[in-house]
Amino acid sequence: MKVHFNGLTEDLALGISELSDMLGLEIQSLDDEDIVKVEVVQCSGPLVVSRTGTQGRIQYESKIHFYRGLGLFAEHAKQEDKFKITEQPRFDFNGTMLDASRNGVMRVETIKQFIRYMAVMGLNGLMMYTEDTYEIEGLPYFGYMRGRYTIEELRECDDYADLFGIEMIACIQTLGHLFHALKWNYAEPIRDHSDILLPGAPKTYEFIDQMISTAAKTFRSRRIHIGMDEAFQVGLGRYLRENGFRDRFEIMNEHVGKVLQICQKYNLHPMIWSDMYFNLLANDYQGHLYNIHADFSEENMDKIPEGVQFVFWDYGRGDEEGYEKLFDMHLQLGSPPIFAGGIHMWNSMAPNYGKTWTTSHPALCAAKNKGVKEVFATAWGDNGTETNHFVILAGLQLFAEHGYGDEVDDEHLAKRLKACTGLDLFDLLVSLKYMDEVPGVDEGNHWMANPAKFLLWQDLMSGMFDGHITPESEAVLPAHYAELQRKWQTCKEDLSSPFHELFDVYDKLAGVLTMKSTLGVRLKRCYEERSIGELQRIVAEELPELLLRVEKLRLAHRALWMLTYKPFGWEVLDIRYGGLKARIQSAGDRISDYAEGRIEVLEELAAERLIFDQIGTPTAPLNVTGLYQSIVTAASLT
Fold first, then answer.
1. Are residues 550 and 620 in the same domain?
2. 496-511 confidence digits (pLDDT tens)
3. DSSP letter string over 224-268?
């Protein structure tokens, strides 16, 4: 579509040039024929986008609203000669937090690609979650060999985000989740537990000062996320030995107060995760991060330092009422809360859009009902970032559409995501949930079952999860994954990079699981039935083919990783794939030794298969989840 914009600032013109190819716009002069002339007007009030014949208009209040309006105009003007769209933004801050601390550290160009998508969606907030993956001058071991960002790299991202009206906020940790920062000898004086800083120690606050001063000189924003979540053992390690037992609510308040003073020194306005206060004030704590019975008495609330904003994170609740009760409790902490939801991509090989949908819709509706003005979507990479971050785009679109309207359904989301990316991605991305939401997993996968992960990594001979494969599952799993492989093979050919590479990984993964998902069960049955001929056939025919498929998967996964992330961290997945290949070879050797009479028993195949008893009793056979270290062996990996 040929368009001419009148009333552009220099920044907007530059931003449009970054987005025009993606949106299918040709920017022309007034002298060209067959153009649509678009008047750009900045004023207070709602976002208004319209067209009547050759005349268009984008009326916006803030820069991010212009770019959403640009996307809306491009979407509708390609199909309609006359339209008018009016939107009233529901949130002041709406965006995402991308995990860069669990091996997958995005390349700068990857972050910029996310920023372009976010701009057209109308999302105006971005945090890169960095525990130790950012450079601190004078601390060479901080983020050593972890792909840490240089100050210059983060400033480049901040500049690019600012072009589109997106606020980049430093997102660090100043209490817990610091294992990699604290594992080196330099950190011994400031270590309470292996991943928790030592509260009260002067050197701890010198260290935190270095963290915060780095953030202050890196980003434009005067806001900073200083973490402090899930530090459940604070005060119970070195602190306990040196100081004796103290009320940990008091320890937390003292620590927060000292860190706030450092933030004030650099003119920064901090936010922290709120779960520790609920945890420390819940005397009957039984594993619930947000216990509504926590003691939020006036006396306790008065002890919490002032000047910090609290972030309420919840990735599992499915009812608006529950969210609303917790929003009300957060108001007692003394400031309007920020809500952090989750696009479920962690601890798995594929995203869980079933749970993402059933938690995000009620959460965002409740936020609007309660007047919460700031929200963001987290995208964690727990257990090795096996799932690439580009899978979250459908979830980001959901957050965006809730930010500008109230009626949000999949049909609308699909149209908007296509308009915002130039690609027909929505159904494909959401369908990735079926890599884990297989027959034998509850619809919606609320319990985060990850069969694509445990069926991939588990050992053929010991099969830690084979106790969950019922005869019914055995009958359908190979066909289920074969059907998905055909789907991914077909769709990837129409996609540009990096989505071609993304679905190439799922093509190869489904190909592996078509063979491997039930192979361990068949091996055990053949052993018990003494089907020597069948065992020999499997060794001769199936295992070599499986090895070839695993290697193709490794190469596809590596190609996607190197395209989107820094190389640091890939070595972990290389080790996993290498271990899988070695164990397939060992399985062949062991079975051959047995079949040819060199050994009399295969203890691994003779062992009883129990259910994976770490998650309670599953409501469906495959409603089970595991981390790599517990999937591959019952022994110790350390």
1. yes
2. 999 999 999 999 999 9
3. EE----S-TTTTSSHHHHHH----HHHHHHHHHHHHHHHHHHTT-
